């Protein structure tokens, strides 16, 4: 209650917009800086041995946007699947 008796009446009378609720930030949003950590860089360097440059480019971009390693890897695998090895005939 306020001086006008009811908040809804006060909002109409004074044309006050109701307060918006703040959303809690996810862990990714809280720590997202647009840069990769040393650990992420090392992981990607090791990971690059097994994947194509396009896969790695997409992973790096997604991780800079805030995705984790596994999430970025799964998205990149859907777009750039790893080529299946050809069977060698003896």
How would you characterize this protein structure?
The chain is 51% helix and 0% strand. It is mainly alpha-helical. It has a domain at 43-81. α4 (53-64) crosses α5 (69-79). The chain is elongated. The protein starts with 6 loop residues before the first helix and ends in an 11-residue tail after the last helix. The mean pLDDT is 79.
Query: Poorly predicted ranges (pLDDT <50, ≥5 residues)?
Result: none
| Approximate strand percentage | under 5%
Q: State the share of residues found in helices, binned by percent.
A: 40-55%
Sequence of secondary-structure elements? HHHHH
Radius of gyration: 25 Å
Biggest sheet statistics: none
**Mean pLDDT figure:** 79
* Total count of strands: 0
**N- to C-terminal separation?**
87 Å
**Class from secondary-structure proportions:** mainly alpha
Treating each run of at least 4 consecutive H or I residues as one helix, how many helices?
5
Write down the overall geometry.
elongated
Task: Give a brief rundown of this model.
The chain has 90 residues and is mostly helical. Helix content is 51%, strand content 0%.
Keywords:
90 residues, mainly alpha, single chain, elongated
Q: What are the SSEs and their pairings?
A:
Layout (H helix, E strand, L loop, with lengths): L6 H8 L12 H5 L6 H10 L5 H12 L4 H11 L11
């Amino acid at each position: 209650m306020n001086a006008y008796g009811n908040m809804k009446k006060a909002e109409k009378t004074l044309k006050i917009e109701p307060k918006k609720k703040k959303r809690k930030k996810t862990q990714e949003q809280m720590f997202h800086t647009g840069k990769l950590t040393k650990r992420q860089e090392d992981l990607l360097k090791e990971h690059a041995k097994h994947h194509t440059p396009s896969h790695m480019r997409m992973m790096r971009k997604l991780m800079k946007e805030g995705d984790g390693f596994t999430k970025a890897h799964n998205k990149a695998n859907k777009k750039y699947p790893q080529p299946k090895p050809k069977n060698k005939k003896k």
